[in-house]
């Protein structure tokens, strides 16, 4: 494609968008709204996913041993359990260690006041087990329950399961919504381009009469689709991230321990994805409308 | 006298023939069963000026539309500058049209573009450079006597001027053939004569012209080759002929 052609396409696209500003506005806002919604769902899913990942990384199964076993017994048991496929690593925590950890906390003084001191240590020997992934939790629990040395097991079961299920469901919903929104906006873009195509029918007929190729006729429409997709997605990104920042600050006020888990890199990647989606939507909407351009551009209906 | 620039655009010859246009047994039957053209055989030489006459519905427009591949025959072959355009793939049709100038009855100008922009359209679609476009548009507008109105819009022009803009657009590419359907159909006799004078000038530079018309005064006055079509048949093909076909 020559430079002269490209500048002609860009000029034409600009002129046409000015002339049918309403159509351009409809296309840009359709793409923009669809992308804001898509982006919102993707952001929500990403946040939950990231939260879940944090939770998984922190997932510790703590097994409290019955009283009366020596540390060496605990170490033997730990060695035996290490061979299990579900386990990433095991740490044996002696009662002394547990007490040290406990008293190193800021609540140290309070605990001392209610009568726990360093000489009478009621804490059991514990195994801190880090599992490889969330899927390994259930089978490991079954195995641990069969160990006679283990008295009690604790883990953040309910929360863990809930978040895992929610995350999967949210990904599925996001995917469905993204596809549906994509199709809906593609349909609207297709129809608006189709309308402008009818409005510019005369021009297309003349272009064809003077020897324009089909791709030349399509050129300005494709540039228009590209520009509208670009502008639509750009606006969507601005709206989405402004709303996201606003919501984060509101959430931080409401929930004191809330922290945003999505890093700049991920946000940048999401923006790039939205930008790509916008451009693809704009161009493919135009391409779809223009597929039968050669039939469309006959100078007059068949007749004698 | 032949204008050598008219020959620059010559299509690659496929048949060794000197004819500019050749129709061999061309028949066009529409899906509704109407026979618009019936076994038409005709040759037109380079530089010819041919009037196509006949009553409305005789098949004149269909005939012309076939020449620029807006329509294809049901049977038969059409050669333009030695190339069989009935077998031409759709993707090559734009390149055929770049060698043709087409002027139709309704002026077909873009109302939101200036005179110069309308004429430039034919050059833009083939990717000509800005300076080339500017020079050739100026040249074409001078030929039709409208260079002083290059910045005006079609709606600010008279009918005759609008048709002259169409002619400028058709000749800006130095076409081998000018195909024109009722170019004076909407114009008064005075203006029609001016337009016809323009076509004669273009023809004198070597461009083959084929013109469908109902204007018997002009046909009778100019005494060019006249081909009469009635009910899809050629009933007359006469050098220096008149309009009469009954």
Structure commentary:
The complex is a heterodimer of chains A (304) and B (246). By secondary structure, chain A is an alpha+beta fold. Chain A folds into 2 domains: 3-55 and 161-296, no CATH class; 60-155, Alpha-Beta Plaits (2-Layer Sandwich), CATH 3.30.70.3040. Chain A has 11 helices and 4 strands, in the order ααβαβααβαβααααα. Chain A has helices at residues 3-19, 21-58, 71-82, 95-103, 108-113, 137-145, 157-199, 201-209, 214-254, 264-289, 293-296; strands at residues 60-65, 87-93, 126-131, 150-154. The model of chain A has no long low-confidence stretch (mean pLDDT 81). Chain B is an alpha/beta fold. Chain B has 8 helices and 10 strands. In chain B, the strands form 2 sheets. A 6-stranded mixed β-sheet of chain B has the order 6-7-8-3-9-10, sandwiched between helices. The model of chain B is unreliable at 1-14 (pLDDT under 50). The A-B interface holds A 2, 4-5, 8, 19, 202-203, 205-214, 216, 294, 298-300, 302-304 and B 30-31, 34, 36, 57-59, 61-62, 65, 68, 70-71, 90-91, 94-98, 100, 102, 104, 108, 110, 112, 121-122, 124-130, 169, 173.
